[in-house]
Amino acid sequence: MRMKREETVDYNIKGLWHSISRMYNQFGAKYDITASTGFVLLNIDVENGTPATKIAPLLGMESRSLTRMLKAMEEKNWVYREKDPTDGRSVRIFLSDLGKEKRELSRRAVREFNSKVRNLVPSDKLGDFFKVLSTINEIVDEPSLFDKVAEQISEEFASSGLVHNQ
């Protein structure tokens, strides 16, 4: 069965995320905030700071990308680093006063968007949506998801005489 890309789950999720990200970027542009920096700001504990190692997993980011982003945010005086008082090897990221202002702009944008969605989408449908996302996330986390596909491809390559790298 051939599937059009518009009929695939991943295409629709990616397209929706790009639209949401573009919306946040357009709003944030006048405040020098991107969707990514806004999400980082929202995931830093205002009172106690947040260990640098905890931020990337919260956002599903690579630590290298986060390191570059935190460096840029530090240069803009939005965040600063301090050694963790309980673990000298660890660094905590704190919001500066300017960072707190940028965080508040991000928080209000997220609240406005979510409020609009909740006003237009009935709560039972939104509940179903969250259940579907949860199920998809479970599928994504399944370590053996593509084992069958890899086995089939290996068999097809072997029977056709073509060699492939693993």
Would you kindly provide a written description of the structure presented here, covering whatever features stand out?
There is one protein chain. This protein has 166 residues and is mainly alpha-helical. Helix 2 (35-42) crosses helix 5. 64% of the residues lie in helices and 7% in strands. It has a three-stranded antiparallel sheet. A hairpin with a 7-residue loop joins strand 2 and strand 3. It has a domain at 5-120: Winged helix-like DNA-binding domain superfamily/Winged helix DNA-binding domain (Arc Repressor Mutant, subunit A).
Features:
166 residues, mainly alpha, Arc Repressor Mutant, subunit A, three-stranded antiparallel β-sheet, 3 strands, 7% strand, extended
What's the main sheet like?
3 strands, antiparallel
Helical amount among residues, as a percent range? 55-70%
- Estimate the strand proportion: 5-15%
CATH-derived topology of the domain at 5-120? Arc Repressor Mutant, subunit A
- Give the low-confidence spans: none
Order of helix and strand elements from N to C terminus: HHEHHEEHHH
Q: Please tell me how large the radius of gyration is.
A: 21 Å
Mean pLDDT: 90
Using the coordinates above, name the CATH class of the domain at 5-120. Answer: Mainly Alpha
- Terminal CA distance reads 27 Å
What's the count of strands? Answer: 3
The total of helices stands at: 7
Task: Determine the CATH superfamily of the domain at 5-120.
Answer: Winged helix-like DNA-binding domain superfamily/Winged helix DNA-binding domain
Which class of secondary structure composition applies to the elements? mainly alpha
Name the overall outline. extended
